Amino acid sequence: MQINMGIELISVVIPIYNTEKYLDDCIKSVMNQSYKNLDIILVNDGSTDKSKSICEKWQQQDDRIRLINQINMGAAMAKNTGLDAIKGDLFIILDSDDLLHQNNIELLYNCMKEENSDIVEACNTTIFEEFKSINVQQNNKVENFNTENALKELIISGKFHQTPWNKLYKKELLKDIRFPKGRYIDDEYWTYKLFANAKKITWINDVTYYYRQHEESTMGRQYSIKRLDAIDALYERYNFMKVNFPNLKELSCKTFLDNCIYNFQKLCMLEELDKDKNLREDLWNKIKQTIENDNIHSLTTKDKVLFFSFYKYPYMISKVRNMLGRGI
C-alpha cells in the first residue's frame, strides 16, 4: 500500500479522561498514521491523573494536535466538544485507551473514495492491558449497503456496530446530532442517526482497530444499573424506525424487548441493586406497554412465546432462563 499523504483534512476526535496508562500509545498510533493530513483533537475532560501533561507533551511535538481542556462533564460531552471543533470534511472518533493500525485512516479513506461511500467501517480486535503486536490478515474484502440494509446490520450487530469508533464519517452527516449528556451508554443514541443520514455505507473485512479491554473500560466493568440507559436508547430507536424505516420496526422492537428482559434477568440475579424492585417494575411496564399498544404479531413464533410468557410471568421466566443461562 502506498503512503497517502492525504488530500482531504480528516479530523480525529479523542475524548480523554484519566487514561494516562494508555494515552501515549493511543496518540502515537494516530501520529504515525500513513495518512498524514490530520486534525488531531484531544479533549481532556477534567482528568485528575497525568493525562493533561501527556497531551501537552505531544502537542509540543506535532502541530497537527489541538488540545481542549474542559471541566469534567462526562464522555458524551467530551465527544461533543470534539465534534464541535472538527475542521475536516471527514472525521473519526477514537477512544483514548485504544490504538489504530498504522494504515487505519488511509484504508478507510481510500475505500470511501473508491466506493463513493458516506460511512466506512472496518473490523477490530480486542487487546488486553499491555499491547503486543498482532498479526492480522488484510484481505480487503468490501461490502456495500444502502441505508436500510446498513441499519439492519447495525441493529443486529452484524457487519456494523453501535460503537462510534473505527468508522470514517462525512461531516455533512453529523448536522446537529450529538451524544446525550450524562448517559453511561451514549453510543446507542447516536450511531444509527448518522447511518440514517447516509446513502451508502461500506464494510471492510480488515482489522484496523485495537480495542483495549481492561477493568476501567466501560464494557470491562461488572454489570451496573447505568446500563439501563440502553433501554431508553433502544426504545427511542424503535420509535424512530417505526416512522422512518417501517421495514425495520419488528427487528427494532425485538431488540428493545430482548434488552428489557436481559436487564430484568440481571437484576433478579443481583437483587441488591434493586431491593425495592422498582427498576424491574419499570422494565416490566415497558414490556407490557409495548405488547399491549404495538403490533408484535408479525414477530416469529419463538419470539412471541418468549415475550408473552415474560409479560405474564416475569419472575418465573427470569428464574428459569437464569438457571439455564439463557439471554445473559
* Structural class by helix and strand composition: alpha/beta
How many E-type strands?
Answer: 9
The backbone outline, from C-alpha atoms, is: globular
Low-confidence stretches: none
Q: What is the assembly state of the chains in this entry?
A: single chain
Count of alpha/pi helices:
11
How many strands, what sense, and barrel or not for the largest sheet? 9 strands, mixed
Distance between the termini: 43 Å
> H/E order of the elements?
EHEHEHEEHEEHEHEHHHHH
The radius of gyration computed from the alpha-carbon positions, rounded to a whole number of angstroms, is: 21 Å
Mean pLDDT: 92
Helix percent reads 40-55%
Sheet-strand content, in percent, reads: 15-25%
SSE layout and pairing:
Layout (H helix, E strand, L loop, with lengths): L9 E7 L3 H12 L6 E8 L5 H11 L3 E6 L4 H11 L4 E4 L5 E2 L3 H12 L3 E10 L13 E5 H9 L11 E4 L16 H11 L2 E14 L15 H16 L4 H21 L8 H16 L7 H12 L1 H11 L4
Parallel strand pairs: 1-2, 1-4, 2-3, 6-9
Antiparallel strand pairs: 4-8, 5-9, 6-8, 7-9
Helix pairs in contact: 1-2, 5-6, 7-8, 8-9, 8-11, 10-11
Describe this structure in words.
- 43% of the residues lie in helices and 18% in strands.
- The chain has 328 residues and is of the alpha/beta class.
- Strands 1, 2, 3, 4, 5, 6, 7, 8 and 9 form a nine-stranded mixed sheet that branches.
- Helix 2 links the parallel strand 2 (38-45) and strand 3 (65-70).
- The longest helix has 21 residues, at 249-269.
- The radius of gyration is 21 Å and the shape is globular.
